[in-house]
Amino acid sequence: MKYSKILFTLLFLLTALSVFSQQQVFTNIQKINQWDSIRKIAFNQDKFIFIELYSQNCISCEKMQENTFSDKKISSFLRNIFVTVKIPIDCELAANVIQNLSIKKVPTSFIFNWQSREVERYEGYISPEELTKKLDDFSSLYIGYLKLKDDYYHKNLDREKLGMLALVMSELNFYEESIKFSKEYLKKYKKLEYTDVEWKLINLLSEERISDSVLQSVISDYAKMFEYFGINKVNSFFSSIFENNYKLAVSEKNKILFDSTLFLIEVIKFSDEEFSMQRMKDFYKLEFYKETENWKKYGNSAVNYVEKYEVGDAELREIIYVLYLHDWSKTNLIKANSWAEDLYKKDNYYMNIMTLVFMQHRLSLNQRAVELLKEAKTKTTDKKNLELIDNLIREFGK
Prior knowledge:
Elements: H1 2-23, E1 27-28, H2 32-45, E2 48-54, H3 59-68, H4 72-81, E3 82-88, H5 92-97, E4 108-112, E5 118-123, H6 128-153, H7 159-171, H8 175-188, H9 196-205, H10 213-219, H11 222-229, H12 231-252, H13 255-269, H14 273-282, H15 295-308, H16 313-326, H17 330-346, H18 350-362, H19 366-377, H20 383-396
Parallel strand pairs: 1-3, 2-3
Antiparallel strand pairs: 2-4, 4-5
Helix pairs in contact: 4-6, 6-7, 7-8, 7-9, 8-9, 11-12, 12-13, 13-14, 14-15, 15-16, 16-17, 16-18, 17-18, 18-19, 19-20
C-alpha cells in the first residue's frame, strides 16, 4: 500500500510536469542584453528564435497562450526547432529590436534567425490548426537546412545540393552565407545548365557587385541567357543589377564599378536599346567620372541619345550642362550650343538663358554671353541669382 501511494504520487508529479513543460515554452524578455543571450543560445544550438509579441490586457494574446501554444504538437515544434521568447510591445527590447518591422497588431509571432533577421511572421490570433501547418512547413525547411549544412561540412554535396544550400540560406535570411554558397557553386560549375536553381543563384548575386569575377564570367555569355530565359526575364535581371551597381558606384566613387555598370548598359542594349540609352544618360550626372578618359566616348552617346529620342527641356538642359563641364569635343559642344539656342528661342526665361550663357562661354563667345547675362538679370529677382550674374559679367568681360 505504501509503495502504491509512492507510485501514485510519482505518476501524478510526472503528469503535472508533462503538462507544465508543454505550456511553459516561452521565456519573457524585455532588455537588450537578454536578447543577445537568446541569440547566442540559438547560434550554439543551431535553432531559430520564435518571438511572441504581445501587450497587456490583449484578449487575442491570452487566447493564443491558452489555446494555441498549449497544443501538444505545437509545443513539440517550438521546443525542437526554436528558442522561444515573449516580448511585451512596450518594452526597451521591442523598441530596439523590432522597431523597423511595421507592427500592425498584437499578437504578432515572428521567426528570426540568430543574426536578428526576420524569416517569417504571423499577425493576429492563429488557431492551433493553422499554426501547426505553418510550423510543419518551416520544420521541413529547417530539417533540409540542417541536412544540407551537415553534408556540406562533410564534403558530401553534389551540384544540385550545393545550389539548394545557397537557396535555403537565402530563404532563411542568412544573406552572407547564401552569397558565399552561390559564388562557390558558380566557381565550381562554370558550365551552366541554366536550370531554375541556377537562375535563382544568379539572381541572388544580382544584389552583389558585378565587378566580382564570378558574376562577371557568368553573365558574360548573356546571349545564351536570353536564349534560355527570355528577353523580359533577363532584362529585368540586368536592370536590377544595374540599379544596385549604379548606387554603389555613386556612393563609393568607384571606377571599377563604373566600368562594370557600363558593361551592363551594353548588355541591356542587346535587347532594349532605348532603355540602354536612357541608362547611359544617368552617367552624365556624376561629376567624379570626369577624371577618367571616357568622357568623349560617352559625350558622343549623349549626343546620339538627344538626336534619337524625344527629350524634355529639363533633361536637355542637364545634358547640355554636363557636356559643358566635361566634353572637349568641339563637334559635341557646337551641337550642345545649338540645343541651348533652341531652348532660348522657345522660351527665354532665366534657366534657358543661363544654359545658353554657359555654352557661349564654353565656345569662347564671351561678348554674346555678357549680353545674355544682362537679359537674364531682368528675368530674376533672386539675390543669389543676381549676385551670380554680376560675378559672371565681371569674369566674362575681362
